[in-house]
Amino acid sequence: MDKSVKGVIAAALGTLLLAGCGGGAKEDATGGGEAKAAAVDGWDASDACALLDKAAVGDALKDKVTETSLGLVNKAEGANAATSECTYRLASGGSATLMTRKSPIADNTPEAIALAKSTTAKTMAAFSDKKIEDVPGLGKGAFFVPGINQLNVFLDDSRFVILTVGSAPNDSARATAVSLVGKIKP
Known about the structure:
single chain, alpha+beta, seven-stranded antiparallel sheet, 5 helices, 7 strands, 30% helix
């Protein structure tokens, strides 16, 4: 799969997942999220670049991050979630992206997680025969999309990240992405 197709797929999946996470959630929704969820009031999803250090990205990808750029910024307002995307440009010409989302309501329900996963699987089926992989023990729910090397993590009831490490070697991309998600500021 060439880079332009991977980019289109990654952008489409990210948009679908960010839009789909809040679908149908109620203000009083509860979901059994992680205990640390209450301590994340300072976690600013509208500045993804501040949540994952560029040196950590460079170290993990064995390349130097020459530039970061912040885009797709949406500040939280009322029931709207805060979102953003940080692009990490690498000296080799590759890149990595981190999309972040924090909802003012607990909308990362088991149903929303299942919907995000099934939507991603259906989208990927049009381009690849690789199957979505569950990643146990990471947040409230997580799955990896091989081929585009994208890790989707529902950190708790309200926080969600998508980390794409497309330039990582396919045989180590999942482990690299899991390691980097562990470095996201709490």
